[in-house]
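A quick aside before the break. I want you to see a complete sequence-to-structure record at least once, exactly as it would be stored in a machine-readable document. Don't worry about memorizing anything.
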Amino acid sequence: VQLQASGGGLVQPGESLRLSCVASGNNFTLNDGGWFRQIPGKEREFVAGFFALESAGYSDSVKDRFTVSRYKANNTMTLQMNSLKPEDTAVYYCFVYNAMRVRVWGRGTLVTVSS
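That is the input. The structure line, written in tokens, reads:
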């Protein structure tokens, strides 16, 4: 499975940004997956995602501002980020699980929130 993330960039506080992640691979079907982020010098942290048959889950720091979506028909996930804050600045990584239930990571896309 390969993941291609896009949509990062520089925005001002309060603005919005939408990240996309397209998964490809033989016989791959998008089920579980989501997004982490990493600030330089810190550990990668969970942002939002889908697990098993549960509805989407979010970290407390982004709940009510971010929305994660998945489109199984084209193996795509999106992360709609609203009301962005400087502390949201990070490299965002999408992830899925392959047939062996091993987590697969995308390459990351940089989001910078600054005035």
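Two observations worth writing down. The CA atoms of residues 15 and 23 lie 27 Å apart. DSSP finds no helices and eleven strands in the chain. We'll return to this after the break.
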